[in-house]
Amino acid sequence: MARSTFGASLADYVVQPSDGLWAVAAGAVITFWDDSDGGTQYTDLLDASSAPVTQVTADEFGAIPEFSGPDGVTGMWADAGGASRAWIEARSVTSGATITPSVRDWLNVKDFGAQGDGAADDTAAIQAALAACPMGGIVYLPAGAYRTSAPLTIPPAVTLMGTHTNLMTVVGLVDPPCYIAPLASFVGDSVIKFLDQAEGGYSTISAEHRILNVMIDGSAVATPGIDGILAKGNIQNVALRDVTIRKVTGAGINTQFNAGFFPYSWRCHRVMVDNCGWHGIHMQVMTDITLIDCQAIGNGANGFEINNAANSQAIGCRAEWNAANGFHITGDWATGTGSGGMLLGDCSTDRNGFNGVLIDAVGNGPIQIENLHTRRDGRNGGAGGGNYAGLACNAATVPVVVGLVTCYPGVDDNGTQTNSPMFGARFTGCTYVSVSSGFLHAATDGWSDGGGNTVLRRGPNIGERTGPTNAPVDVFNEGWEAAGYAILGSGQSNGQWSVWSGQAKALNLGAVGGGIAIAEGLNGRQGVAALVGGTVTVPNTSVTATTRVDHFRQEPGGTLGHLSVTKDPGVGFTITSDEAETSVIAWVLFEAA
Fold first, then answer.
1. Is 506 contained in some domain?
2. Which residues touch 113 (CB under 8 Å, ≥6 apart)?
3. Within a domain: residue 534?
4. Domain span at residue 586?
5. CA distance 281 to 262
6. pLDDT in tens, 317-373
7. Given phi > 0 = left and psi -120 to 50 = alpha, else beta, which region is 542?
């Protein structure tokens, strides 16, 4: 027989009896029994140092410390002096020299031989734990630095979980390591990968993979093109939470096509991708994704490369200091009923090499942007210029609908670099772009119409500034005035406007030289007609029984008489003089409101 290991696992954290489970106070003394009530106490126990004990004491969190049970016992009833006992199962079951996982479905990689010492190759041990883990189970990485030499494959419905995530390396911070660090000799396409059903040989669809509280540190690897996390094919409902990927030579996260399928419906919360060699997060035809509080910083290409992510959303995400664009929304988003757009909400950019956000996607699904904050993008290698902008749309056929966007220019923190970006927002060759409001301060122009746009609509509340931040030049002629009147730029409307104010001056044309222009032509609402022998009939199908026909002489001719009008609703009207004059008569049609 052999002793099994109990305690020292997150599985031993339990809650109050009101929830149907069991908890103990910090420092509680716990004894172990063979029955839920009465029975015989187990007293043949060993503590973590193999010293004999008859009971254990809970730590400051109420958790059970590691200890070994009696020979051959894999489960016991724990008694902390309360009204009831709780069933405690072994964290690992030892049989001779073989370690097998307990029925808790919580597998500690160290039970499979992982060292986590920053030197030993732990690939085989971690992969063995992942392979042994049943669906729905957790493979646990205690604090440590786990070196790997080949990709780790997480099976469907298995969670890889560490103690915590080091979001970034902070000078002076003593933070216990908890990360996977590929060796310099690493061989493979990614540090962690998900396989679809065909490649993985799974009996079920590849789905419900989880990575929680794990950091990938690729700083020791020089081979190009190694991704942090790679998924190809039909891999659904993956969840990443509190995950950091830094200094891999490929993409931080890379999803790709395989055998006619793409990954689908991922959820990423608090994911940091830091200084990777290619795109930070690369999503290819990934529908229904959710990115919340994700950051891409210092990556070698785009921070977020989103190539068709129909029906998806990025909320509170940030792209900073990436070599190319912060966010790049691109690719063919299709035009059918199964296609769709994307929402960017409360996102921000700073000091990206090209545009803060670039949209050049094609398709019919709308891209919606709400509360976009851009700053110091368009670095262009430190030279500025380059026609880069905080928000840029270039040859996009997808409708782009922007609620609020701001841009603030600047230079690097140390004062170097030319002031950038060149434009706050720039639109060129797009099918439909509408921007409701914003404040756009940029080196050259806040708002830039690059030409070739089919419809470009600018809202009334967009303020502009140009120049450096310490000496800006205000261009507020398109903004809201302090008195509360809106000055609208030139534009078009294809619908009825109504002014229901009871004031005598409900509609004012206040500028000197301002006026009203009404189109002429067949069935127009104004025009001219020449009298012949004192009469002229004007065909106009827009005339109704209540239409008011205002008429006056534009060019007098002959003997002038008194003018009158006769209407023929739906056909036109006739202007008649009581003299045989030949004047040119101007007319305007009005309707009663």
1. no
2. 122, 124, 125, 128
3. yes
4. 526-590
5. 15
6. 999 999 999 999 999 999 998 899 999 999 999 999 999 999 999 999 999 999 999
7. alpha
